[in-house]
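Please describe the entry underneath.
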Amino acid sequence: MSTSRPIIFSILCLILLLNGGCEVAGMIAGKVLPDENVAPKYLGMAGQTIGVLVWTDRGVQIDYPSLGLDLANSIEKKMLAAGKQDELKKSTFPVQPASIVRYQQDHPAFDTKNITDLAPKLGMTRLIYVELEDFATRAPASVDLYRGSMTVTLKIVEVAGDKAKIAYEEDSIKAVYPPKVTEDGTPDGDDVRFYQGTVDAMSTQIVNRLVTHEEDDEQLPP
């Protein structure tokens, strides 16, 4: 939040003190002072055909066999919901994440290939490629307490014909669920809730790097 906003809010409180107090000022400030917008970190999705691919290692696949697909679907769903924004105008998602997963399964050599070699074979001009580094639904200090956490690397691959390049890369993107839970975790919840909540939190983190969003949408782990 800009440092000027609390100052403006205080002035409003003083002006309206005799006409309803700071409660009224708060109501007005909520409309007059909207949350600041944050620009995307990567521009280049407008007018493109886009696909989403999430890579997970074999250990994660054993424990959470649908995690990669669930995260990819969540990312695509939120991108589609933001489709009217300038960053995504005239963009399409012609290849569903499930089809990309099937391609992975049909081509076991995928794990040994560079993503820039694979991307041209998937049928899109932009690939949102996510490498999952870490995932948990329990707190690190106790398996009896819940705390969703996920860490990923994001790569945006630009494809032109049979050539591809990584145009944007960011590692160690972190998401926690709930956003303000401490590392000690909480006894309230279950693995399903924390699995779904963490996937949702991470997909928001990814999409926020690709479209304009309000500052309050940023999830900053404690």
